[in-house]
Amino acid sequence: MKQKLLLLVCFIAGIGFSQAQDLPTNPTPGKCYVKCITKDEFKEVEETIQTYPAYTNLKVVPATYKTVEDRVLVKEAAKKFVYVPATYETVEVSYVKQASRNDLKVVPATFGNDSRTFEIYPKTSGWEYKVLEDCPSVNKDDCVAACFVEYPAQSTSVGFTTLSSDASTSSVPVPEQTATYKKRVIKTPARMDEIEIPAEYATIKRRVVETPATTTTNTVPAQYQTVTRTVLDKKGGITSWEEVDCELLNATPIPIYYELGSARLTADSKKVIDERLLTILNDKPVSIEIMSHTDSRGNDDFNQSLSQQRANSVVNYLVSKGISRSRLSAKGYGETRLTNRCSNGVDCSETQHQRNRRTEFRILSN
């Protein structure tokens, strides 16, 4: 349990808060921080090795012939030229009869309202202390937490009149005046048309190679063997402070349900894990503990075993989503941590028993 003591900056000191070292700079008021040390991550890879090489067998296939017909030129093509005169058309051309201009118009000044805020009392801040729940140490100073709290400044506003825009002039455009005149232009220019006199052709026959001599290849495949080995995927040892919500440092219930008498997760429970736990683990390099509980009904040993299996199911699901198992801890408490009086032999309603059948999580340090 001593290795599980939370190194928190909301703050938990090693011997006492007064001796804390290397705390986060610029802490956010009301936030807590977890000291994270990343661990080495490993993965299994399959490597295929060749135990016998591939080789080929060759067989010669002789060439084959076929008769083809070719079209050959017996008289070359020629050209002749024909003169075509130009044609004209009448068009109207526009021109500017009177140029455009800009007249000026006076725009009077305009006014608006504004206000200014003055600080009448300054912002204040300071540290507040609390003792975390479930402290695993006999010395409570090991679990003292300090939260940095900030109170906002107080202000008041004073209104006044401002000049929105000073007096000016605006430009009023007066468009130009246009007119047209008629002009004769070339519609199609004179040209020389080129007329092709086609060539004349004849057909001849000849024998050509249809398929050249080739070889056929018969490939005998290589033989392989697959070897599975474990390799380092990501080097750990990096230390950082991660900001977390203070309420996540204590046991936080989540609506995870299982099939009756089983540790199999339902589809709705997997959705809750994706939204609540997978989001935290992907965003921050923190570790979490999954704690599963049962009610008091049934055999005590069975309840203890079932709660451990259910906590393991959550961890295994997160591992299947790509989370390193070294960041996850599963603990089943059976019926040892009931939230009400409903222990063995006590008559309770189904609703009261249901409060004890719960799954919780909390953030741990690495």
TrEMBL record:
Residues 1-20 form the signal peptide. Its main location: membrane. Keywords: Cell outer membrane, Membrane, Signal. Pfam families: OmpA (PF00691). InterPro entries: Bact_OuterMem_StrucFunc, OMP_bac, OmpA-like, OmpA-like_sf. It comes from the Bacteria. Residues 245-366 form the OmpA-like domain. It is found in: Cell outer membrane. This is OmpA family protein. It comes from Winogradskyella echinorum. The lineage of its organism: Bacteria, Pseudomonadati, Bacteroidota, Flavobacteriia, Flavobacteriales.
